[in-house]
């Protein structure tokens, strides 16, 4: 029973687990690019031949990448390049970034399709089944009426067939894994057989201009569904920092925080996956305390419950670095820590008596920061609000503040927002949210200088040319 309350998560209004295949997520992202006017943004069938970074040059485009597309060679010159090209990343290899780790002798199967089975509640969500021959089995309802079945491949099957395993063999093994329930496939839309292993790049950045993300930076099994999900978090974290650097908003230290934010998270996922991959195959890791003699399936459930905040992404926290993630003043009373996700709470806008989610009003948007001013009780905090008003401009709004308002006015009518953020109504507080929704820092209400100090620490001196790349094909530029 995976839900927010059973997982100890209190800051989301989306209390369900959505199993949507990567192909449909990719469609959504591509369509968003097209709505923004970037047609043909994805070039299928394109491979990297070579990539180099010119050192000690004043060129606006120091990265040169040679591509092969439809039998012709294309040269792209850019300011940066992001290698998100899988566990066999060409970009990582050309950048000479080591990718240490381990690969086990275990092989897993994942197969998607329309199925028929007499297993009860087969279309009611997802479940785990314990098999004496195929380890812990995943049976999960997917989008469009499909089902995913995952299991550990018996070693003798791999020894017999190796890399030549066919769809028929996979279907046969799926039927054996699900015994004593019946199983048949109306159609198969996808399947894979892969070796389980864990690797982590020693660096997410090389030669100043090359970045690594997703499977090019970290690989692990699909046991906790962290491949694409962790990759999307990599992308969101890097995108706003890189955009701000290219436009000239940020000093170089902001871009450096991509690795210090994201690599420790990947390390935790890799460590978790070492346990998951063994337990899924029925093997109990020696590192796990098991004085009570629990079986592998029970221990696997405990590992999932322990790490649910990490795996949903809602409990991810980044290290305080004094630049992008700055510790709160020691005497500020607040429950939400710097570099953690800002909780989602219900608030009310002026006018209609209809509560709205805070996150729906402060959506992630390019390199836009948000400043949350928790005014507390204005009768007790009026002087602090007025002091802050000296630093911030905006349209006139609420007389109850004792001064012209700034930004969007929201009401915490029942005090739950102040309570969840751990802010005293007699004191108030101000939070800065990063463009990805993480708390950058907090200051005392009225401490406009504290806000100024934070942004002075990350911004640069001026804007730059925002052209991102140029390419040549034959003699045309």
Report on the structure:
With about 475 residues, the chain is an alpha+beta fold. It is about 30% helix and about 25% strand. The protein is built from 12 helices and 18 strands.
- Beta-strand residue percentage: 15-25%
Q: Can you summarize the main beta sheet? A: 6 strands, antiparallel
- Overall shape: it is globular
Distance between the termini: 57 Å
Low-pLDDT runs: 394-400, 473-477
Q: Helix proportion of residues, in percent?
A: 25-40%
- Put simply, the count of helices is 12
What is the element layout, followed by pairings?
Blueprint: H1 22-35, E1 46-53, E2 63-69, E3 72-78, E4 81-83, H2 90-94, E5 101-117, E6 126-131, E7 135-141, E8 147-152, H3 155-161, H4 167-177, E9 183-200, E10 205-206, E11 210-212, E12 218-219, H5 227-247, H6 252-280, H7 296-306, H8 308-312, E13 346-348, E14 355-357, H9 358-361, E15 370-374, H10 378-389, H11 416-421, E16 429-433, E17 439-443, H12 448-458, E18 469-472
Quick structural summary:
The protein has twelve helices and 18 strands.
Name the descriptors.
alpha+beta, 6-stranded antiparallel β-sheet, 477 residues, globular, 23% strand, 12 helices
């Amino acid at each position: 029973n995976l839900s927010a309350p059973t997982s100890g998560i209190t800051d989301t209004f989306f209390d369900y687990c959505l199993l949507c295949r990567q192909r449909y997520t990719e469609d959504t992202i591509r369509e968003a690019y097209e709505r923004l006017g970037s047609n043909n943004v994805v070039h299928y069938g394109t491979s990297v031949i070579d990539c180099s970074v010119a050192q000690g040059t004043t060129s606006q485009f120091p990265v040169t990448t040679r591509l092969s597309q439809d039998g012709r060679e294309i040269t792209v010159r850019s300011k940066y390049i992001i290698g998100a090209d899988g566990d066999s990343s060409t970009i990582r290899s050309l950048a000479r970034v080591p990718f240490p780790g381990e690969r086990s002798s275990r092989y897993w199967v994942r197969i998607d399709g329309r199925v028929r089975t007499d297993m009860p509640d087969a279309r009611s969500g997802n479940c785990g089944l314990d098999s004496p021959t195929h380890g812990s089995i995943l049976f999960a309802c997917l989008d469009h009426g499909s089902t995913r079945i995952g299991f550990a491949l018996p070693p003798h099957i791999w020894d017999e067939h190796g890399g030549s395993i066919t769809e028929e063999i996979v279907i046969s093994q799926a039927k054996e894994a699900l015994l004593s329930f019946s199983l048949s496939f109306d159609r198969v839309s996808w399947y894979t057989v892969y070796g389980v292993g864990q690797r982590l790049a020693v660096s997410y950045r090389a030669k100043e201009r090359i970045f690594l993300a997703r499977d090019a930076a970290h690989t692990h099994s699909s046991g906790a569904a962290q491949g694409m999900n962790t990759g999307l978090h990599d992308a969101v974290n890097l995108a706003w920092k890189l955009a701000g650097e290219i436009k000239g908003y940020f000093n170089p230290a902001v871009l450096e925080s991509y690795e210090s934010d994201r690599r420790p998270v990947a390390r935790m996922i890799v460590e978790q996956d070492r346990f998951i991959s063994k337990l899924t195959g029925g093997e109990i890791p020696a590192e796990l305390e098991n004085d009570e003699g629990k079986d592998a399936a029970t221990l696997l459930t405990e590992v999932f419950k322990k790490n649910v905040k990490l795996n949903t992404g809602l409990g991810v926290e980044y290290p305080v670095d004094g630049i992008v993630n700055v510790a709160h003043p020691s005497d500020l009373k607040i429950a939400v820590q710097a570099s953690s996700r800002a909780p989602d709470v219900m608030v009310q806008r002026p006018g209609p008596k209809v509560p709205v989610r805070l996150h729906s009003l402060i959506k992630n948007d390019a390199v836009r920061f948000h400043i949350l001013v928790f005014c507390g009780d204005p009768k007790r905090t009026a002087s602090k609000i007025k002091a802050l008003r000296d630093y911030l401009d905006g349209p006139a709004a609420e007389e109850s503040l004792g001064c012209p308002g700034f930004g969007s006015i929201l009401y915490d009518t029942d005090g739950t927002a102040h309570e969840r953020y751990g802010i005293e109504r007699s004191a108030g507080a101000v939070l800065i949210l990063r463009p990805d929704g993480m708390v950058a820092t907090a200051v005392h209400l009225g401490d406009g200088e504290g806000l100024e100090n934070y942004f002075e620490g990350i911004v640069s001196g001026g804007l730059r040319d925002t052209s991102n790349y140029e390419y040549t094909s034959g003699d045309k530029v």
